[in-house]
């Protein structure tokens, strides 16, 4: 077995590989850029080598710098993680020339399958059903528009070397095809150093289901079942699960066998994933093969008990697979929520800055019989950089059934505390409660269809709302009792704590009676309904773990005047708990109106201005592109919300902007 492995990556996947290597008794080497000098993967590794400035194309994807790090440390093997150099044939070839083992497939398989254009041609030759499209190279935007028209809209514009949603756009008309081609080409060049683009028909109402394969150097290949990855935004997966709630055993077997046949056809070894589009009739079409470990591999590990990173290392060391296909059963159900540094209230735009609070749920077995796992590369006090992928963590849960796995995820998300940046926790929590998701009836269009105007927060249902009312009323009583016991107060000024309170939240008011006893509180509503609240919460704790009529409820709690800011199940609520008289007076207070920003184009996230499309004095139309801002390797086109005339342009290409900086003003 290898004595030392270098991980040619960063963030959570580097940490993930280090954990397994440590378990196997293998020393690890981390590489890092200036931006990652204090990163978690650097702290976890046995050694760390600096490889350059923050941009990935000057550090993490510069092969010579990785090779220098290998020579300095004497690493015998390299695990590439995902992204960066993981699917670069020239990197695998450079390692081979140096006599260093690549923990991944052989370079001919990377060449055959890692390139989306080549892999589609090979799949067609092998008789695999593929989505209609143009497999040749596309010279410019004019040709992209012409090809898109011939295929028929909508089309998918994709970077040949792409991954993780980078360099991908859906175009519904010629204008979007032109803009999408240019943005995809730029993103592909910046992220992968390869700006080749191809176009294919976009299949509407599809499911994205992928098969995990594992092959050794002795001719053995198995599939570890499927992952459902249909919950996507901008072609980037947000929630994954294993198995799929849609497949039957016959379809699963057919897809798995086809995936293995394709892998064997190209001499594939190591872990890989064959992605399919599956329609409503369970017809499946080859999409692409990722010749690397997938981001969402933990859900497969949770339902099979197989450590995929360990098997990759053992295969690279020449060992045969320790199991056969018939040994790989599906045990229970697993969910994964990707926690991104993206603000859902600002159309999921990137958010960077310091993690002032980062407290994930406790990993391991839960009292309900499930499991919680959190793969991460960050820590409290660390920085989320503008230079890399916005992922913070991958929160996973396992339980015997899908319903139970979803409930474990709901509670884990409510327990996850993140402050200091915008993040998508409220959104993934909302999806976990969405009836269409819980029914399993989703497609890759789920987010676009269910949140067409973006994410505006969550309105809690009546039952959950009453649980929050009861919880906050009981918590308020705890706070009031504590205040009444402050020592050193004047005589004749004893603080009396009443039983009658008015709780206002989400535009509603609830009059309640709170009766406390040593074991908790009974909260009675005006209609006579009662809820029993038990908790060990004390004022100052930011997390309240309660039982409401014996059902678990977890609230994130921050104090506000006469109440709390409560976050639960994707909702962000201001909850006021007042005496009846205070509630009566509060209704007389005037409401503060937000400032009018309609005459300004504000920068929606921290980023770099790539392009200004208009000049002072120009008349613009609704939907017209005004500027392009880049953050976290993604280009974001900012458009006019209405017709108007540009009065002043305050920013120029190359400018670095903060959230809400004024880019331009209108008359």
Concise synopsis of the structure shown:
The protein has 667 residues and is an alpha+beta fold.
What does this structure look like?
With 667 residues, the protein is α+β, with helices and mostly antiparallel strands. 27% of the residues lie in helices and 33% in strands. The protein contains 17 helices and 40 strands. The strands form nine sheets. The protein has a nine-stranded antiparallel sheet. An eight-stranded antiparallel beta barrel has the order 25-26-27-28-29-30-31-32, surrounded by four helices. A five-stranded parallel sheet has the order 3-2-1-4-5. Strand 31 and strand 32 form a beta hairpin. 48% of the residues are buried.
Q: Strand fraction band?
A: 25-35%
Rg: 27 Å
Please give the largest β-sheet.
Answer: 9 strands, antiparallel
Helix content: 25-40%
Number of E-type strands: 40
Query: Spans with pLDDT under 50 lasting ≥5 residues?
Result: none
Describe the structure using short key phrases.
667 residues, alpha+beta, nine-stranded antiparallel beta sheet, eight-stranded antiparallel β-barrel, 17 helices, 40 strands, 27% helix, globular
How is this fold's topology laid out?
Blueprint: E1 4-7, H1 11-23, E2 27-33, H2 40-44, E3 47-52, H3 63-73, E4 77-79, H4 89-98, E5 101-102, H5 107-114, H6 116-125, E6 133-134, H7 141-151, E7 155-163, E8 166-171, H8 174-192, E9 197-201, E10 207-215, E11 221-233, E12 236-242, H9 249-265, E13 270-278, E14 284-290, H10 297-304, H11 308-316, E15 333-340, E16 342-343, E17 349-350, E18 353-354, E19 357-359, E20 364-365, E21 371-376, E22 383-384, E23 391-399, H12 402-415, E24 417-419, H13 425-433, H14 435-438, H15 446-450, H16 462-484, E25 500-505, E26 508-517, E27 520-525, E28 530-535, E29 543-548, E30 551-560, E31 563-568, E32 571-578, H17 580-586, E33 600-602, E34 607-612, E35 619-620, E36 625-631, E37 634-639, E38 644-649, E39 656-657, E40 662-666
Parallel strand pairs: 1-2, 1-4, 2-3, 4-5
Antiparallel strand pairs: 6-9, 7-8, 7-9, 10-11, 10-13, 11-12, 12-15, 13-14, 15-23, 16-17, 18-22, 19-24, 20-21, 21-23, 25-26, 25-32, 26-27, 27-28, 28-29, 29-30, 30-31, 31-32, 33-40, 34-36, 34-39, 35-38, 36-37, 38-40
Helix pairs in contact: 4-5, 5-6, 7-8, 12-13
């Amino acid at each position: 077995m290898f004595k030392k492995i270098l991980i040619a990556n960063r963030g959570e996947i580097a940490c993930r590989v280090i954990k397994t290597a440590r378990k196997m008794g293998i020393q690890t080497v981390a590489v890092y850029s200036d931006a990652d000098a204090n990163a978690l993967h650097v702290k976890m590794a046995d050694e760390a080598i600096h490889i350059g400035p923050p941009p990935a194309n000057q550090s993490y994807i510069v092969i010579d710098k990785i090779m220098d790090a290998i020579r300095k440390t004497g690493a015998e093997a390299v695990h590439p993680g995902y992204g960066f150099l993981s699917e670069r044939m020239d990197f695998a070839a450079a390692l081979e020339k140096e006599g260093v083992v690549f923990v991944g497939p052989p370079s001919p398989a990377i060449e055959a399958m890692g390139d989306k254009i080549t892999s589609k041609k090979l799949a067609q030759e092998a008789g695999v059903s593929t989505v209609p499209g143009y497999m040749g190279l596309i010279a410019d935007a004019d040709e992209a528009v012409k090809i898109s028209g011939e295929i028929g809209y909508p089309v998918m514009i994709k970077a040949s070397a792409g991954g993780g949603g980078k360099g991908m756009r859906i175009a519904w008309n010629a204008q979007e095809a032109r803009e999408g081609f240019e943005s995809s080409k730029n993103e592909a060049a910046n992220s992968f150093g390869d700006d080749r683009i191809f176009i294919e028909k976009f299949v509407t109402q599809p499911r994205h289901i992928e098969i995990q394969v594992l092959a050794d150097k002795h001719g053995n290949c198995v599939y570890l079942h499927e992952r459902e990855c249909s919950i996507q935004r901008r072609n980037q997966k947000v929630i994954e699960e294993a198995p799929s709630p849609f497949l039957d055993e016959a379809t699963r077997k057919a897809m798995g066998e086809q995936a293995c046949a394709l892998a064997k056809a190209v001499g594939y070894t190591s872990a890989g994933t064959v992605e399919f589009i599956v329609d409503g009739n369970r017809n499946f079409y080859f999409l692409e093969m990722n010749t690397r470990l997938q981001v969402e591999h933990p859900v497969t590990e949770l339902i099979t008990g197989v450590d995929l990173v360990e098997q990759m290392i053992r295969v690279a060391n020449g060992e045969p697979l320790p199991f056969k296909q018939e040994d790989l059963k599906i045990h229970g159900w697993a969910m994964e929520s990707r926690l991104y540094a993206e603000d859902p209230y600002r159309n999921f735009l990137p958010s960077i800055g310091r993690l002032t609070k980062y407290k994930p749920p406790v990993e391991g077995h839960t009292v309900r019989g499930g499991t919680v796992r959190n793969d991460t590369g960050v820590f409290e006090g660390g920085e989320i950089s503008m230079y890399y992928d916005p992922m913070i963590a991958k929160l996973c849960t396992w339980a015997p059934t899908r319903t139970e796995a979803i409930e474990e995820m709901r509670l884990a998300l409510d327990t996850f505390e993140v402050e200091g940046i915008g993040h998508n926790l409220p959104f993934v929590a909302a999806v976990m409660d969405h009836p269409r998701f819980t029914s399993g009836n989703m497609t890759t269009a789920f987010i676009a269809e269910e949140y067409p105007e973006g994410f505006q927060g969550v309105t809690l249902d009546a039952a959950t709302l009453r649980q929050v009312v009861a919880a906050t009323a009981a918590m308020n009583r705890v706070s009031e009792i504590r205040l009444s016991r402050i020592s050193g107060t004047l005589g004749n000024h004893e603080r009396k704590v009443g039983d009658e309170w008015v709780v206002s939240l989400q535009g509603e008011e609830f009059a309640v009676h709170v009766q406390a006893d040593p074991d908790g509180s009974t909260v009675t509503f005006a209609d006579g309904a009662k809820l029993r609240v038990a908790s060990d919460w004390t004022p100052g704790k930011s997390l309240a773990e309660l039982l409401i009529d014996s059902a678990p409820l977890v609230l994130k709690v921050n104090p506000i005047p006469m109440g709390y800011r409560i976050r639960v199940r994707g909702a962000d609520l201001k909850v006021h708990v007042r005496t009846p008289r205070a509630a009566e007076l509060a209704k007389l207070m005037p409401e503060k109106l937000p400032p009018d920003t309609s005459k300004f184009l504000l920068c929606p996230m921290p980023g770099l201005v790539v392009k200004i499309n208009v000049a002072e004095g120009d008349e613009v139309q609704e939907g017209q592109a005004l500027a392009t801002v880049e953050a976290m390797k993604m280009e974001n086109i900012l458009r006019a919300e209405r017709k108007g005339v540009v009065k002043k342009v305050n920013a120029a290409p190359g400018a670095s902007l903060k959230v809400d900086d004024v880019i331009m003003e209108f008359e």
